[in-house]
Amino acid sequence: MRSLEQWLAYQTQVHPQAIDLGLDRLRVVLERLQWRQPQIPVITVAGTNGKGSVSAYCAAIMSAAGLRVGTFTSPHLRSYRERICVHDRLVRPHELLAAFEQIEAARGSVALTFFEFNTLAALLIFGAAPLDAWVLEVGMGGRLDAVNVVDPHVAVDTSIAREKAGIFRTGRTAVIGGREPSLVLESMARAVKAPLKRLAIEYNYILEGLGWRYRGTHWDLPHLPAPALLGDIQFTNAATAIAALEEITPRLTITDGAIAQGLSQVRLVGRFQVIRPAAVSPTWVLDVAHNPDAARMLERNLNANPVPGRTLGVCGILADKDASGIAEILDVAIDEWWCASLDGARGRSGEELANAVRGKVATNVMAADSVAAACAAALEAATPQDRIVVFGSFHTVGPALDWLENTGMLPPAVLPEYTPP
Q: N or C: which end of the chain has fewer CB within 10 A?
């Protein structure tokens, strides 16, 4: 019997391509598994930026309401098990192994990608669990993404890309986040006769003192607490999540108190996550920002939360990402740069990244062989008044979390294991 690590290594070799968008392979395997569409509410979330936060708010609020939620996200930071959460706990290894064995027995000669194995496992595990709702986060695609094999009751899109609109369904509400109008998404929703729900039109929010107010098609919620996730954009993300939840309340009960509790208790590692180890250490900020839009948001958040000293940057950016554009945006926010090597087919060396960054910033840029080495070098150069910002990819923030834990600046991670009352 394969171990979990052996299974994951095996799944990278089954399909000749790492990414091969399409739903036909999944449908064949699901038919052999006799899988059926879920009969409980499903919220599917797509978008280039913000989908992780929206998914987290949906899950946290429903959990606060006493509902049992299955949450599927990707990629992971430190453990593959982060991708599949079953009612406030990470998927257990034996659940994954059982799902993988079922998939392998059913697929025959069908070549599945790594992400397709991942998605199928989530569907099988959620289908076997006593859940009240699912929250599914789309991976890299939209219309042809593996997650889109599930018919959602509510589809949320935080971007303006046409392909992301492929998650919309006839007669099912399409929630669109972001204040910029998106004629593309609106036309796609109308084409499939999906009722539109747009920020600043069908739903909106206003800031009120230290709190805020949500107004939608069914709910008027004053005096909401500020979201626990940091950054101005989190009000938009939280409002988008509430707009989605509003559409499933005929089937599930979610009180005002549960919404407030979920907003206050939500956690999402690696999204402007602030770590203050001790008075004699600099502050650390971890953010997976990996494209220019996310870099602009990181720059806004850094400016809105100043520190007495300097801001030192540790970045690792995959080769297929716009490193120069990211660097140009963050130039004025970061006083010194350490560029780290990232491994893998999409990785690049720290020196290659440093060369891309040097042409766009006016400050010192150093190269490092690893994220750990870059973090150590930045810490050596920092004072307690400074902060160190680690950003650029999940592949950067994950190793940084490992390094912080190994050096004693972060308490050891405890994988949550839910025990029913």
A: C
